[in-house]
From TrEMBL:
Segments forming domain Major facilitator superfamily (MFS) profile: 28-402
Official protein name in the record: Cyanate transporter
Gene3D superfamilies: MFS general substrate transporter like domains
Organism from which the protein derives: Barrientosiimonas endolithica
Membrane topology label: Multi-pass membrane protein
Length: 403
């Protein structure tokens, strides 16, 4: 591809990237990987520490749960504006700024004030919106022939990040206290910011005329299908974080075993996160891949809803495999269903805004269903229902089209 073709596609000129800075691409790969490691742990670290934080601030169960809700609401409101920030500041500087805001928010939420706890949570979520939305643009722009591979690296390290936040929260708390845990774990964002600093001087500003106009996405059925698919994957993850442990203990599992399975659900998704994007990118379309992922989620959901003992544990792990595969495919769609980096960024903003709105409803509706019924029998079918939705939406979003 020539320099002119690269510029018309919204990509950086080949000569400046590859001849003047031969070190750029290897460091950029490391920066993308480290970014993946930094984008979920600041959120998942809060879940296991809910009781300690609630006791420290005198919060009710609803107040503790609101920390997750606030995060998702910020994602919904702020995600569509991330591409605007990237266009005005330059993508690389915006990513650096996002990670620095995460670090600042992590510090603020340790201050001895309930207001600071929520304000810090808002800052963390605001900061995460920037890399979450802008990194698919970077992948689409700088790795047009390796979208699947780079998406796999990003989403698999996201999976590891989520698991690390859950696994390390309690050990760090028992050793140094929860204030240290919720500050140290997000510190990976600071390292990510440092690694992105060398790219700040490039000041890439995507051409707003490249790709689809911003308003037309909201009128595109394909864009809505990608958004709904992303929402189903996020709903599955956040509903599991909120309610899987009580669902499992209700079926006779110990709290320790249930918590361990929740961590494994997050961690086991790393394997399909590595495999799915390259496979999806090689195909003309992703209909079959999406259908298989939906079937895996559906089978796991049925096992969670109907079994006990070892079969129940297997069901949770199958759900984890399907969840990791589904989320990696959702991120792959951002590059595969668009033709330019700007279009990828706009689709990322829309899908994450709408998707997290869907995800925010999941824990609330499951909790209400449990309160109304006084049982977990109905809510346990949530994962099977999501699997069926993934199957349907994925086959629509997976068709060989672009927004």
């Amino acid at each position: 591809m020539t320099d002119l073709a690269h510029r018309r596609a919204g990509l950086p000129p080949l000569r400046r990237v590859h001849r003047e800075h031969p070190w750029r691409m290897p460091i950029l790969v490391v920066a993308v990987i480290l970014s993946g490691l930094a984008v979920r742990s600041p959120i998942t670290v809060m879940g296991p520490l809910g009781q300690q934080i609630g006791d420290a601030y005198g919060l009710s169960a609803a107040g503790i749960g609101a920390l997750t809700t606030v995060t998702l609401v910020v994602f919904v409101v702020a995600s569509p504006f991330a591409t605007t920030v990237g266009r005005r500041l330059g993508i690389e500087l915006a990513v650096v700024l996002g990670f620095l805001i995460v670090v600042a928010g992590a510090v603020v939420r340790t201050l001895p004030s309930t207001a600071a706890l929520y304000a810090g949570t808002v800052l963390v979520a605001l900061g995460l919106c920037l890399p979450n939305v802008l990194l698919p643009m970077v992948i689409r722009r700088d790795f047009p022939r390796s979208i699947g591979t780079m998406t796999a690296l990003f989403t698999s390290t996201m999976t590891v990040s989520g698991a690390l936040g859950s696994f390390l929260a309690l050990p760090l708390t028992s050793q140094w206290g929860w204030h240290v845990a919720i500050t140290v774990i997000p510190a990976g964002a600071l390292l990510a910011a440092v690694l992105w600093l060398p790219f700040e001087r490039e000041h890439h500003q995507p051409d707003r005329t490249a790709g689809v106009p911003a308003g037309s996405l909201w009128r595109s059925p394909l864009a809505w299908q990608v958004t709904a698919f992303f929402g189903m994957q996020s709903l599955m993850f956040y509903t599991a974080v909120a309610w899987l442990v009580p669902m499992l203990t209700d079926r006779g599992m110990s709290a320790a075993a249930a918590s361990g399975l929740l961590g494994m659900l997050a961690l086991i998704g790393m394997v399909p996160s590595l495999l799915v994007p390259p496979i999806a990118a090689r195909g003309r379309d992703q209909v079959v891949v999406a259908a298989l992922i939906g079937l895996v989620q559906l089978v796991g959901g049925v096992l969670v809803a109907t079994t006990t003992g070892a079969a129940l544990a297997v069901g949770v792990l199958v759900v984890g495999v399907g969840s990791g595969a589904g989320m990696s495919l959702a991120y792959s769609f951002l590059g595969l269903r668009t033709g330019t980096s700007m279009a990828a960024g706009r689709l990322a903003g829309m899908s994450q805004s709408g998707g997290y709105a869907i995800a925010a409803l999941g824990p609330v509706l499951v909790g209400l269903a449990h309160e109304w019924s006084g049982s977990w029998s109905g809510p346990r079918w949530t994962y099977a229902i999501v699997g069926l939705a993934t199957l349907t939406l994925g086959m629509l979003a997976g068709r060989a089209r672009r927004v």
